[in-house]
């Protein structure tokens, strides 16, 4: 296949007097850990990371395991960064989504979940013993929280850990099948170390959920005494990760197996914790693990970047019905331009969220924001990638064109690291404070920046007030999810408009066009609310439709060519954009590796 170097790379286009450079956009978006990011992207040029579409179930798992080992050799990702430099940890993980979601999650389970639990819930003895082995990839790690009977309700898990002071050990038991650990990434084949969530009892007193670190396989890969593991099964996607199911039968763990940052047992067998209440202690432990949620949200944003880059290139280059490019159709602009705006908006607010985690900001604020943004980013990804796929017509179906693979592989991101619907309810519990007064009615007339922000904030405030009046959150879960969205939308839009002011002058017009489109589209999505609450009337609704159309035209350019510049701004290197339709679809041929077998 001849590969056409994308003509528009680093181009400058005239946008009504102001030129915008994709390089400048990229510099602005990718302003953190620049050298490290470039080094990882370069490292991913290795043959091992080239896409493979004809592998069997087990071959794909082996490849994913080899990829993890090779990444470990590069020394980019370190579990110590959870403690010393979370920002660097995020940067290390970020580029992986462009390769494939299995390696992203394989690393997520190993470095983020297993490594993160040991780093953030354990103490120095755990760090010294395990983190170097995790960093080097020599001790593959798992994270066993979910049980067959208890998914979203982690506090309800049934695995038990009973402290036996005579042996200075814990005895771990699964009990019933409902307490078996399910979906555990890495457990089925390669995992050797596991962080396990269990209900702790000390001296007959129930102490709530605690986390333990243990070997599930020895150095030869043989299962440890009392551990039973079964294969989870073939999944709709992400089959490079070997998910498994685990049972524990009287597994004996020494006293140091308890990750004891929040609770410990002393030489005399006495339990100590600075946090007295069981729910508060549980909250502190899971709150410390928000890194995983942040990584999942960032991956969703990165998948949007790749999907949009491919779909926008193809759309601005493919004619249909004569010479007219499909990217020139309004319906194409309507499907792609808002996705680009959402991706910019989410990328920029993710920088803020990662900054809060890095600066060890208030854990409650981090929990609310990471939960709301994880749900918003992954649900946005579902929507954006589906639109990208449809905009590419039949070509969107080919695995080589990357979008379809991401759709199936990443479908799980709305479920793991907190099911989105459940997360949005947690957000609401976190942000509803007593004493919220009824918001003063507002009206939107011109859809100015000020009015748009006011409208998004108004929706959040009205929904908060409404829920407080209703009182019963359980009977009004639908409104809770709406409020979770309203909270995430307003914060994202507010931050985007602030970024417009912070950005170099040459980028401001372009970023403002995107920020306006982001806010307009959010209003349009929630038009029923705005009409029913009297913020706009029927004429205002029609005006809104026109404004969204106009803004999509402005942001896209005649054939959608402006969208290419904006996608170039995401800064994905050519070697990771492997989709043939992104390089010159006229030269399309079946991939040699698959074609040769026919
Ligand atoms: C591919 C994959 C990999 C995974 N990897 C791991 C891993 O490595 N380690 C690990 O510990 N876990 C892992 N998980 C488990 C994952 O975290 C759980 O699937 C997730 O927490 C949801 O739990 P569940 O599947 O039991 O769904 P449930 O909690 O049963 O939810 C099912 C549905 O019910 C709804 N629901 C549940 N409760 C409520 C409520 N209160 N209000 C309204 N609606 C509700 C949810 O919105 C959802 O739609 C993985 C899962 C998958 C699919």
From TrEMBL:
Lipid metabolism listed as a keyword: yes
An annotated GO BP: lipid homeostasis
GO MF annotation: an example: acyl-CoA oxidase activity
Active site residues per record: 417
Keyword set includes Acyltransferase: no
Domain Acyl-CoA oxidase/dehydrogenase middle, first and last residues per copy: 142-251
Residues covered by the Acyl-CoA oxidase C-alpha1 domain: 287-431
Keyword line: FAD, Fatty acid metabolism, Flavoprotein, Lipid metabolism, Oxidoreductase, Peroxisome
Annotated Acyl-CoA oxidase C-terminal domain residues: 479-555
Top-level taxon of the source organism: Eukaryota
Cofactors required: FAD
PANTHER family, alphabetized: ACYL-COENZYME A OXIDASE-LIKE PROTEIN, ELECTRON TRANSPORT OXIDOREDUCTASE
Family: Belongs to the acyl-CoA oxidase family.
Protein name: Acyl-coenzyme A oxidase
